[in-house]
Design brief:
By secondary structure, the chain is α/β, with parallel strands linked by helices. It has one domain: TIM Barrel, CATH 3.20.20. 40% of the residues lie in helices and 12% in strands. An 8-stranded parallel beta sheet has the order 1-5-6-7-8-9-10-11. α5 links the parallel β6 and β7. α4 runs parallel beside α5 and α10 packs across α11. The longest helix has 21 residues. The radius of gyration is 20 Å and the shape is globular. The model has no long low-confidence stretch (mean pLDDT 95). It binds uracil and zinc ion. Zinc ion (ZN) binds next to β1. GO terms for molecular function: carboxy-lyase activity; hydrolase activity.
């Protein structure tokens, strides 16, 4: 069976890349003076952009990357900024075509040896843009639910333009929950770029800080809207180990308790909801993984007044909701190397978490993902 499953790995399928090539403003793919293609997707990104090539769209390149790093199975998702920049009409038709393409990409991927399990499964996307009808979004949910190799969908933080606490989305959450689909919540916009000052720091500040904080804000707003109380079985996977939510969860709980408008809105202490989420293990360090696993496990105990700390037992329990990821094809090595540092660091982090034994490491590396995505 599989010993390494990558749940955070992206693709720009050829149809999407062509769309980006046809655009004259970001997000776009342009050809620079040296005749090389460059990807421009982040706010205020200079026209130098990032190198982009087959690792973004070619399945053979994805499979070679997997082989190079010992990854048996990948659960591939579309990369940011998805369909966010399109009109409702274009978003609806491209969502349909891309979900069809992705199902085909997965269905025709090789199988593991001596098994009918595929090496690639997928997370589709929804036409979540302002002005689209909910019935169009629900059609996409149902298309994904019917696709045998799509296990859920990736979603940004904007919803229909008003974020994930927009009550209009309730039928969408309901359909996702009813179909047992996974929602992979992933950032794109970061935070207001005026926070980054004037020094040229490349993409470091938006990627290292802006991305995780965007995820934190989006899932916090979802929690504050009471959506988890209305959809208690919804399966949400947070990118980058939940951003800063684990670090801020007790502060969040305290702010709620002291706020006359919100204090009695939720059924549970805010920390309870962390125990209902799943977290990728894309945190690059063992201490961070240890901390997140401990927090996840303690989450549900605060309201029963039994939050006494049992660090190692908590880390083991919390690890069951953490899943290995790479963020491929992003973060390639700056100079050629056999293995990607970004991947090796995440693998080494899993190996070195104090308190995780073989069972927990195996779970985070593969077993948790097989169960979470019902890959069998
Ligand atoms: N940069 C992006 O634009 N997206 C990712 O997922 C990672 C890095
Ligand atoms: Zn990513």
């Amino acid at each position: 069976m599989a010993s390494l499953v990558d749940v955070h790995t992206h693709v720009y399928l050829p149809r999407y890349a062509s769309w980006l090539r046809s655009r004259s403003i970001a997000p776009r793919i342009l050809v620079n003076e040296a005749g090389e293609e460059r990807l421009l997707i982040l706010e205020n990104e200079t026209s130098a952009g990032r190198p982009v090539g087959p690792s973004y769209w070619d399945r053979n390149a994805k499979l070679s990357f997997m082989d190079q790093h010992g990854i048996d199975i990948s659960v591939v998702s579309f990369a940011n900024p998805w369909l966010d920049f399109l009109s409702p009409l274009d978003a609806k038709s491209l969502a349909h075509d891309l979900n069809t393409d992705l199902e085909e990409y997965c269905a025709t991927s090789p199988t593991l040896s001596f098994s009918s399990i595929k090496r690639i499964y997928g997370l589709g996307l929804l036409p979540l843009v302002p002005g689209i009808s909910i019935s169009s979004v629900l059609e996409a949910v149902s298309q994904i639910a019917k696709a045998p190799h799509l296990k859920g969908l990736i979603m940004g933080t904007k919803g229909l333009g008003k974020g994930l606490d927009d009550d209009t989305l309730d039928p969408v959450w309901q359909a996702i929950e009813d179909n047992g689909l996974v929602v992979f919540l992933h950032p794109h916009y970061g935070v207001d770029s005026s926070a980054w000052g004037e020094k040229e720091n490349g993409h470091v500040l938006p990627l290292a800080l802006g991305f995780p904080f965007e995820t934190t804000t989006a899932i916090t707003r979802f929690i504050l809207s009471g959506a988890f109380d209305r959809f208690p079985s919804i399966k949400i996977l947070l990118a980058h180990s939940g951003g800063t939510l684990p670090q801020l969860s007790s502060r969040l709980a305290s702010c709620i308790d002291h706020d006359p408008i919100v204090a009695s809105r939720l059924k549970h202490d805010a920390r309870f909801y962390l125990g209902k989420l799943w977290f990728d293990a894309v945190a690059y360090g063992p201490e961070e993984l240890a901390f997140v696993s401990e927090i996840i496990s303690r989450a549900g105990r605060y309201e029963s007044g039994t939050s006494n700390t049992k660090a190692i037992a908590d880390r083991k329990e919390g690890s069951k909701r953490m899943l290995f990821g790479t963020d491929h094809p992003f973060f390639p090595p700056l100079s050629s190397s056999e293995k990607w540092k970004s991947v090796v660091e995440n693998l080494e982090a899993i190996e070195s978490v104090s308190g995780w034994g073989e069972v927990e490491k195996e779970g985070v590396s593969a077993g948790n993902a097989l169960g979470f995505f019902s890959i069998q």
